[in-house]
Structure formats: C-alpha cells, structure tokens
Design goal:
Structural class: mainly alpha
Strand order of the largest sheet: 1-2
Shape: elongated
Largest sheet: 2 strands, antiparallel
Length: 146
C-alpha cells in the first residue's frame, strides 16, 4: 500500500504550515500558499489545490485582510496523519468492498474476508492517527555513530 502523491504532498504542506503557524494566540503566524510552495518545492497550483482540500476538511483556515494568510485551523498536536490523508483521499479503506455502499465485487456474496476489512481499516486509521502533525513537523534527530 502506498499513499498517493497528493496525500504525500498534503503531509509535506501541512508540516511546513505547522513549522510556521504552530503558535496560537494573538500573534499567531500565517503563511501564504506561495510561501508554502517555495518552502516545499511543490508547484504553486498543486499547493493551491491542496490548500483547498485541507481547508474544506477543517485543517487549514484562510485569514483575509492585512496580515492575512493561512493558519492551522486547530493546534498541530490535534491534527493527525490520518486527518491529513483522509482530507485528500477520503475515508481510509484498503479495499473497495470496505465501503458498505459498494456492491461491484463478483465475490461479494461468497467472500469470507469482507466482514473483516472494516476492522483492518480501523486499525490502519488508528495507526495513522497515532502520529500528530507536531511530530511530523519536527526534524528527526539521527543518532550520531561513535
């Protein structure tokens, strides 16, 4: 299983936003989509598309006017990797039959595995939810070899 490029780019974009906008209070920092594009190296149209999806999911908030820009919609510690992935990809589901509304599998009526997929999907979501944006936005400290 792999994340799509857009989900990966969303994580990169949100991590950059968290590094700039992680403070909350009267002087919280804001960043523009253009600045996010420059910092991440992603094309500006891609960042704009991601900002739209992330804003619609309630992860980013646009502030208008003087000193406006983008900010995190909630603290970085309260945004998880699962939140970001689902903002771009939709609900986490490893197989199409995990969606109860889908009935396009030829094995559906005889499949003994299908009832287990929701539990697997929930375990995967829980694992991704175990990583907060604050963790993802910090540099990983590599141990120094003697």
């Amino acid at each position: 299983m792999r994340l799509s490029n857009m989900a990966d780019y969303a994580v990169v974009t949100m991590s950059a936003a968290a590094r700039h906008c992680g403070r909350h209070g009267p002087h919280e920092a804001r960043i523009s989509a253009q600045q996010l594009a420059e910092e991440t190296g992603l094309p500006a149209p891609t960042v704009q598309k991601l900002v739209s999806k992330l804003s619609a999911a309630g992860l980013l908030k646009a502030v208008r006017g003087a000193g406006g820009g983008l900010k995190l919609a909630r603290p970085a510690a309260a945004i998880t990797l699962a939140d970001i992935v689902e903002a771009v990809e939709g609900p986490i589901a490893l197989t199409p039959c995990s969606d109860n509304g889908r009935h396009d599998c030829t094995l559906e009526h005889a499949c003994a595995v299908r009832p287990h997929w929701p539990e697997v999907d929930a375990a995967l979501r829980d694992a991704l939810a175990g990583f907060s944006l604050i963790q993802l936005s910090r540099p990983l400290v590599q141990p120094v070899n003697p």
